[in-house]
Design goal:
Chain lengths: 242, 243
């Protein structure tokens, strides 16, 4: 069980003829919450899709839990939550989870546990169509939690949630981390950076920084994650111009 | 692929349908309304005996094609298919599960439509009525399979609804409904042999003329083979990795 959770070497992804990721290297250690930050269009979702093996890649290697990304053996060991909630709107919350549990060969207890983890037990028999955006994204998250995966890849899981729910979810992420789960969480809310063990800043499909928050603050002299990010982007822009 | 996962997918699709009572009502009642209008218009003639069985085979195919292609396109565009493809389930489980669920709906539809045509519209079928239902179900499942396959070619809902005229209308024009196939230009007759609908409607025509299993099993086998082939192609259009 040693080694990194994710190792990316020289990843290249092309979309519509354009290089959206060009030679990206990244190592995500096990048992940490790693925040993937960056402006929209910086390649966060594309990188996450490459990690779960749903992205066609043009080159490079992505190794997940010691296996090539997308390996059939990883399908129950990696949980993935897409940015838009991937749930069946015309089913109830419970029916959505029950279908995923059937695929993952899990029993009804797993469904109850996952519902409890995201605080949706009281809505279990409501149709997803009648839920709010935040509730839907928690249904999507609950599905990813079902199999207690070793790696959770969460694409903007807190978008559209109120501050209380956001805090509760980050508490949940910390609990999962303490149980040994590795989490790769993308966000564009910079104050969430404080809840991550490590931060990876993406810009233009490349890693701008990969460090802990305090390292970033030391390096840039900024007061918070947002300031550090802006300082790094400005420095990179000056590099582009030079 | 595993029967357990195929069944789980079929059950999930059926649950989705159950939450959508209006769709079920439309699927079952719409062909009855159309047949009823026709029977009313040609009341007192033998038109309903002549064309009724063809329509009992055709309407379900059209309806199921549309329903299936939209349902699967929705799965592709909503992100649920992308997540499904990262989970331990086979492509065949998804496609066969869909087809099985819609086959259940198609069976209900075929029974109701055939019953309506015979008992309400007075359609006189000289062949065995059970075979009429069987062929109607197969035609409807063929519609599902074609819809599943066609949805792979569509990127948007606008494109998906136009797959129906694209895939079904050419088959309809040369299948023998508008002109007996032996009177068509030779090339069109050859083309008609390559289309599955030709065999589905040929079986219906034979049954309405009083022929039995010995005369239609060949047609039935061809339609079944097209269903299997189309589902196999549809399964290969699912991708674990997308651009």
């Amino acid at each position: 069980m040693d080694g990194s959770a994710i190792e990316v070497h020289g990843l290249r992804v092309e979309r519509g003829g354009a290089r959206v990721i060009d030679g990206l290297d990244l190592t995500v250690p096990r048992g940490q919450v790693v925040g993937l930050l960056g402006p929209s269009g910086s390649g966060k979702t594309t990188l996450m899709r490459a990690v779960v093996g749903s992205q066609v890649v043009a080159g490079g290697t992505v190794t997940v839990l010691g296996l090539q990304a997308g390996d059939a053996a990883l399908r129950s060991r990696v949980g993935y939550v897409t940015q838009a909630p991937s749930v069946y709107a015309d089913l109830t919350v419970h029916e959505n989870l029950a279908y995923a549990a059937a695929i993952l060969r899990l029993d009804a207890d797993a469904v109850d546990r996952a519902l409890d983890a995201v605080d949706l037990t009281s809505l279990a028999h409501r149709g997803v169509v009648s839920l709010s955006g935040g509730e839907r994204s928690r249904v999507s998250l609950a599905i990813a939690l079902l199999a207690r995966p070793e790696l959770l890849v969460l694409d903007e899981p807190t978008v559209g949630l109120d501050p209380v729910l956001r805090r509760d979810l980050w508490d949940l992420f910390a609990r999962l981390r303490d149980e040994g789960t590795t989490l790769l969480v993308s966000s564009h809310v910079m104050d969430e950076a404080a809840r991550c063990d490590r931060l990876v800043l993406l810009r233009g499909g490349a890693v701008l920084a990969d460090a802990t928050l305090s390292e970033l603050l030391d390096r840039t002299g900024a007061a918070d994650a947002e300031g550090a990010f802006l300082a790094l982007v400005d420095a990179a822009r000056r590099g582009d111009a030079a | 692929m595993s029967p357990r996962l195929t069944a789980a997918t079929a059950a999930r699709v059926l649950r989705q349908l159950r939450h959508d009572g209006r769709t079920i009502a439309l699927v079952v009642l719409l062909p009855c309304v159309l047949l009823g209008l026709l029977a009313w218009m040609f009341h007192g003639t033998d038109v309903i005996d002549q064309f009724g069985p063809l329509l009992v085979g055709l309407f379900p195919l059209l309806v199921m094609f549309l329903v299936t292609s939209v349902a699967t396109l929705r799965e592709r565009t909503s992100g649920t298919l992308e997540r499904l493809m990262t989970m331990p389930i086979g492509k065949g489980d998804v496609v066969i599960g869909y087809a099985a669920a819609f086959a259940v709906l198609a069976t209900i539809q075929a029974c109701v439509v055939t019953g309506f045509a015979v008992w309400v519209c007075g359609m006189d079928v000289k062949g065995p009525i059970g075979l009429v239902v069987l062929v109607a179900v197969l035609d409807a499942v063929l519609g599902c399979a074609l819809g599943l396959g066609a949805s792979a070619l569509a990127r948007t809902e606008f494109q998906a609804v136009q797959m129906m005229p694209l895939v079904v209308f050419p088959q309809l024009i040369v299948c023998g409904l508008l002109m007996p196939r032996d009177q068509m230009p030779q090339v069109l007759e050859w083309i008609s042999r390559a289309f599955p609908l030709t065999y589905g409607l040929d079986a219906m025509q034979r049954l309405s003329a009083g022929q039995g299993w010995a005369d239609v099993w060949g047609d039935v086998a061809v339609v079944a083979a097209f269903i299997v082939g189309t589902l196999a192609v549809a399964a290969t259009t699912l991708r674990r990795r997308t651009p």
